[in-house]
């Protein structure tokens, strides 16, 4: 009949079983457990972002409130299984649970837990990420001063981990390190931007290049240009994804050895390009969500062989104690999709030599094989700790790559690569040819051209501080044309009133301020770290930058009459706060609750201390700071910095809805409400946003639209709006918050629209 719906996918694949049984990657006697685990759904895992000062508060809230409520809960007569911490992840900041979405919606307590997860994820306080996907960033051993390249970064969960590690010390607003996150797929880059934006870091740049031919970048070091080499590189390559069978059920039906054979060459080219750009002494982590040695050990062995001792596999057996892992294998065979096996390259018939390549086979020389230490690779099997399948190898670069030993030569090659970086890579078969030696005859001409190019580029950049998209037409054939990144000139009159109004510290790095408009009124001011500014200014011709910087100030249409045309943006307040010496109001926890639950409360609602501080302060944008009281352990024990606005008779917070809900939860205020009611108000809000957008003039960027909506809402709310006391009802609390964040939602809609069509042909976690 018609009642059955879609037929259930049969979790069987004879070729898969035959292949992996023969290779022996699963220990003897464990095959049944291995296959049984693959047929079970994958537990949901979540990670609490570790760099935030209130990560411990989120963990405390999760354990003491939400997990405690689940302890004695039963759904359909079955006891709900409690979430458990991942034993190998530091400080209990990662958890896994078998609760499915279906179960989550069956009980009010579980639905409350689900909404908490969704809301905290949108704030960036929690990342829902597969357990094995958390391993590569941990093995990179990142420090805040490291320059990091994430080669195949989308959708961005690992990138987020790297950003957190840079900000390990929250008292340092600008770490010396940075993350350049790259992806070849333009649409997936916007998904990456969305993930990175939640972490509000000035040290992240998203770029759009083919990882196998990602261009060499230059930086200015004491007035001379040098090639940028990275201290850490994450090389999480596209793969066949047979380690993801538990969540991507289609793999059961579609799996064949052909996928691995087709991807091996690309994986090797990407890994080769990675080690070329790695600094000496640097660390690169190569990872896949595949179990296949053709995509794993074969790539690593080939890389080690052609590196001629420049690379070595790091022994990470003592890192991440508690993580069960299998060593890498040293012997394997190659199988075609028709089931035909080959043990050596010489056995492959000529008509198959385009499908099968010599680099796919293990090294025959026993001495060489022993020196490679392939057993230092890690293979994670699903049945060992109820995870997905995964492979990781950690490489350390001891000296320059043999085809790239004359370092100055690389400098000379740079300008030529500027124009044809893609062509060079397209013609190369293995990434090593990207920087091969050229006949010395052409070198003088090349170096002259290089000098001219560099000089004109530098002069132009220094004059205007403009970093536009690459001029190459080839680059514009795909994706959106990005607005330029324009740094504020030192003598820009725009900055003086801002500096005076907020009493900015003399050490404030104003040279790092940028806008996305070359002409006309500057509506938003963004900020990057000094190191990323260096990268942007010196590479505008060879790099397609999708996004960088965090918003720190927004133009307020009536701002001039309050002494400053720009109001503070919550997104960048933690970066700005250390430099601001005026317009700061310290508030108590009761004041914070009022600010977060009422639209525009009268000053009379606040504590007498707050009223005194506000009394002599001019109207306009302000900073609201809450410092915890160690003598009141039951109160929130982490500092909070909020952007606000002081009116004639009122005080309000400019904080996005999800952040409001987050802070209220941390303070013990219940913010759950019935799902249906939420959906109704969400759809009404969406309609209102659409209506307002239709009236917004054409050509505005997302940030401009956000600004206009905020201004309009300010006008609507006005000074004389109705003021309601804090209600005890949870529904009332959230209803008041509902309309305060249309602007942020609008900006997010742009990103989520882009990410809807993301390509999933090559599985990446």
From TrEMBL:
Residues 678-695, 702-715, 753-765 have a biased composition (Basic and acidic residues). One of its GO terms (cellular component) is extracellular region. Pfam families: Methyltr_RsmB-F, Pre-PUA_NSUN2, PUA_NSUN2. S-adenosyl-L-methionine binds at residues 152-158, 183, 210, 236. GO terms for molecular function: tRNA (cytidine-5-)-methyltransferase activity; tRNA binding. Residues 403-469, 678-765 are annotated as: Disordered. Residues 34-398 form the SAM-dependent MTase RsmB/NOP-type domain. Belongs to the class I-like SAM-binding methyltransferase superfamily. RsmB/NOP family. It is found in: Nucleus; Secreted, Extracellular exosome. GO terms for biological process: tRNA methylation. It is an enzyme of class 2 (transferase). Its EC number is 2.1.1.203. Keywords: Methyltransferase, Nucleus, RNA-binding, S-adenosyl-L-methionine, Transferase, tRNA processing, tRNA-binding. Its main location: nucleus. It catalyses: cytidine(34) in tRNA precursor + S-adenosyl-L-methionine = 5-methylcytidine(34) in tRNA precursor + S-adenosyl-L-homocysteine + H(+); cytidine(49) in tRNA + S-adenosyl-L-methionine = 5-methylcytidine(49) in tRNA + S-adenosyl-L-homocysteine + H(+); cytidine(50) in tRNA + S-adenosyl-L-methionine = 5-methylcytidine(50) in tRNA + S-adenosyl-L-homocysteine + H(+); a cytidine in mRNA + S-adenosyl-L-methionine = a 5-methylcytidine in mRNA + S-adenosyl-L-homocysteine + H(+). The active site is at 289 (nucleophile). This is tRNA (cytosine(34)-C(5))-methyltransferase. Residues 424-433, 743-752 have a biased composition (Polar residues).
């Amino acid at each position: 009949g018609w009642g059955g719906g879609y037929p259930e996918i049969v979790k069987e694949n004879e070729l898969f079983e035959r292949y992996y049984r023969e290779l022996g990657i699963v220990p003897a006697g464990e095959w049944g457990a291995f296959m049984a685990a693959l047929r079970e759904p994958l537990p949901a895992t979540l990670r609490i972002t570790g760099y935030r000062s209130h990560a411990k508060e989120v963990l405390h809230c999760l354990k003491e409130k939400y997990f405690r409520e689940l302890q004695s809960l039963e759904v359909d007569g079955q006891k709900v299984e409690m979430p458990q911490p991942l034993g190998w992840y530091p400080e209990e900041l990662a958890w896994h649970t078998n609760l499915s979405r279906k179960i989550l919606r069956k009980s009010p307590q579980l639905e409350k837990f689900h909404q908490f997860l969704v809301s905290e994820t949108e704030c960036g306080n929690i990342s829902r990420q597969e357990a094995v996907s958390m391993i590569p960033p941990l093995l990179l051993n990142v420090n805040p001063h490291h320059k990091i390249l994430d080669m195949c970064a989308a959708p961005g969960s690992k990138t987020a981990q790297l950003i957190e590690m840079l900000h390990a010390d929250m008292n340092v607003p600008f770490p010396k390190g940075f993350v350049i996150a790259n992806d070849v797929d333009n649409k997936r880059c916007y998904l990456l931007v969305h993930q990175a934006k939640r972490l509000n870091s000035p040290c992240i740049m998203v770029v759009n290049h083919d990882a196998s031919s990602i261009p060499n970048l230059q930086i200015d070091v004491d007035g001379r240009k040098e090639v940028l080499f990275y201290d850490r590189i994450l090389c999480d390559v596209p793969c066949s994804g047979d380690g993801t069978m538990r969540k991507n059920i289609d793999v059961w039906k579609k799996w064949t050895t052909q996928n691995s054979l087709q991807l091996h060459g690309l994986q090797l080219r990407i890994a080769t390009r990675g080690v070329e750009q790695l600094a000496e002494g640097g660390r690169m982590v190569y990872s896949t969500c595949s179990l296949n040695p053709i995509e794993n050990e074969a790539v690593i062995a080939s890389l080690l062989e052609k590196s001629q001792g420049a690379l070595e596999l790091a022994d990470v057996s003592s890192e991440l104690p508690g993580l069960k892992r299998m060593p890498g294998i040293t012997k394997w065979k190659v199988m075609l999709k028709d089931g035909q096996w080959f043990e050596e390259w010489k056995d492959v018939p000529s008509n198959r030599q385009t499908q099968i390549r010599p680099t796919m086979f293990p090294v025959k020389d026993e001495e060489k094989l022993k020196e490679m230490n392939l057993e230092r690779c890690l293979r994670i099997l699903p049945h060992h700790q109820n995870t997905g399948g995964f492979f990781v190898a950690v490489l350390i670069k001891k000296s320059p790559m043999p085809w790239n030993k004359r370092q100055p030569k690389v400098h000379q090659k740079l300008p030529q690569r500027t124009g044809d970086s893609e062509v060079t890579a397209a013609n190369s078969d293995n990434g090593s040819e990207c920087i091969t030696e050229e006949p010395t005859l052409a070198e003088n001409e090349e170096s002259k051209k290089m000098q001219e190019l560099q000089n004109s580029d530098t002069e132009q950049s220094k004059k205007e501080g403009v970093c536009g998209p690459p001029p190459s037409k080839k680059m514009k054939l795909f994706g959106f044309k990005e607005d330029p990144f324009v740094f504020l000139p030192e003598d820009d009159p725009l900055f003086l009133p801002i500096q005076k109004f907020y009493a900015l510290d003399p050490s404030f790095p104003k040279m790092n301020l940028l806008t996305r408009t070359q002409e006309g009124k500057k509506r938003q001011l963004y900020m990057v770290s000094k190191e990323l500014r260096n990268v942007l200014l010196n590479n505008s011709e060879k790099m397609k930058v999708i996004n960088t910087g965090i918003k720190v100030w927004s133009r307020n249409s009536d701002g001039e009459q309050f002494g400053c045309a720009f109001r503070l943006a919550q997104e960048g307040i933690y970066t700005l706060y250390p430099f601001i010496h005026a317009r700061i109001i310290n508030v108590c926890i009761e004041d914070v609750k009022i600010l977060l639950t009422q639209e525009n409360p009268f000053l009379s609602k606040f504590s007498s201390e707050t009223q005194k501080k506000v009394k002599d302060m001019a109207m306009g944008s302000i900073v609201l700071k809450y410092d915890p009281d160690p003598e009141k352990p039951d109160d929130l024990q982490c500092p909070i910095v909020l952007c606000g606005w002081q009116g004639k008779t009122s005080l309000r917070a400019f904080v996005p809805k999800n952040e409001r809900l987050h802070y209220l939860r941390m303070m013990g205020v219940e913010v759950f409400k019935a799902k249906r009611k939420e959906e109704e108000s969400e759809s009404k809000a969406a309609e209102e946003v659409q209506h307002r957008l239709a009236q917004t003039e054409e050509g505005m960027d997302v940030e401009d639209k956000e600004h206009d909506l905020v201004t309009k809402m300010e006008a609507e709310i006005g000074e004389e709006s109705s003021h309601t006391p804090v209600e005890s009802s949870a529904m009332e609390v959230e209803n008041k918050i509902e309309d305060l964040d249309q602007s942020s939602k609008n900006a997010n809609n742009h990103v989520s629209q882009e990410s809807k069509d993301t390509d999933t042909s090559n599985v990446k976690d």
